[in-house]
Structures are given as C-alpha cells and as structure tokens.
Design brief:
Elements lengths: L3 E7 L8 H10 L4 E5 L10 H13 L3 H11 L7 E4 L2 H7 L1 H11 L3 E3 L5 H14 L3 E2 L2 E2 L5 H10 L4 E4 L15 H8 L7 E4 L5 H7 L5 E4 L1 H9 L3 H13 L1
Parallel strand pairs: 1-2, 1-9, 2-3, 3-4, 4-5, 6-7, 7-8, 8-9
Organism: Kaistella chaponensis
Protein name: Tryptophan synthase alpha chain
Enzyme class: lyase
Amino acid sequence: MKKKLNIYFTAGIPRLNDTQDILKLIQNSGADFIEIGMPYSDPVADGPVIQKAHEIALKNGMTIAALFHQLKEVKSEMNIPIILMGYINPVLSFGFENFCRECKDSGVSGLIIPDLPAVEFEKNYRTILEKYQQNFIFLVTPETSDERIKYLDSLSSGFLYAVSSSSTTGNDAKEINNEEYLNRLANLGLKNPVMIGFGIKNKSDFDKVTEKADGGIIGTAFVNILLNNENWEAKAEGFIRSIIN
C-alpha cells in the first residue's frame, strides 16, 4: 500500500502571496495532504526554523482572514486534503464557529490544534467541527500511554498524528527509529491511519517510519527550502518527488 505524504508549510512565507503557488506545487509534486501552519507569535510546539517562518509570515502581514481569502481563490484547483495547523488563542479570537465556517467555505478539511485539550474538544468544540464537516487530528508521543492513545484515536478523524519524539519540530529526532513505539502504534488496532511527524528530513527517514505507519509528515525540511532559496520552486518540487519516488 502506498504510504501517504503530508507536506507542511507556514502560510505567508517566503512572501505573503506565495500561498497559492506553494499549494499547487505541493499537489502537483505528488503529495497526499497539505498542512498549512497559521502564523502565531508563540508557536510552542515548533523548533527554530518554523518559529522563524512564523515570525517572517507575521511581518509579511499574514493573518487568518488573509489565509482564508487566499484559500478561497485557489479552492477550485485543489483536490487533495488541506489541513490547518495552529494554536487555539488566534482561533478563539477569530471566533471558533466562524473559523470552522470559513474552513468549510475555503476547502479546508481538517484541523490540528496541539494546545486544545481533549476534554475541551469533547465538551465545547466537537459538535461545531462536525457541523462544518471538519476533521480534528490529535497528537500522541512515545510517552503517551496505550489507553490515552486509544482515547485520542477515538476522538480523532482523518488520521492520528504520532510525534516521533518529545522534541519540538525540526530537531534531530533520536527516537525517529524507535521500534518499540512504532510497533506499539501498529499493534493497537487504531481506527485512524497513523501519520508520523517531527524529524523526517529525507526519503530514508520517510521510508523508515512508514514501515510500520501509514504515512509521514515533513515540515521543517520543506520550510527550510522556502526560506533559504530565492528560486525555491524547482528545489521544492524536486524535494517532494525525491521522497515519493
């Protein structure tokens, strides 16, 4: 079975209006999902590269409203799932139901909000997400108990995001080849596909983690290309194709 590739980038980099071109490039290069980071001033789950991307995007003027506008402009051309990743405070400031409505209208199919507690999700937000047909994806780590993994899997839809280690994004994930963790996930009988993220930088990493999982998520390595290459298009496309082929 083909392993799924999810490519992450931060909205608003390298320039404010590059979003649509990046979306189409990721899709045309053969990725299966696109995960868009919504810039935030305090991205606690992210390492220095993506923190820098958030800072640049905010300086460029990226906002949630601007992102929705950009997504609507390219919606008719997109045919792979688009997921928004961000933090709860800006979403609440925007208005949670209004945010979910805009997601649906913009062609977004799911959300990853690492700092939204599961109990709050169940109590206050699940029905709103369902109303606007939005998947919600929880994260698990090697330290998450089997019972907790099963619980978060029961709440998730779309896929379950399995963090390869307890580090922030972009760090050399020493546990990326954690056989015990990957085996544990594979043997739990989870209802959702399992996607591994954090620390995947190349095809070798991707192939290793997807021996036991359904797919992998690449963020920092791709964002690095966008930030450090003035003519990033060819290199970004080549990078994605190198993972798949």
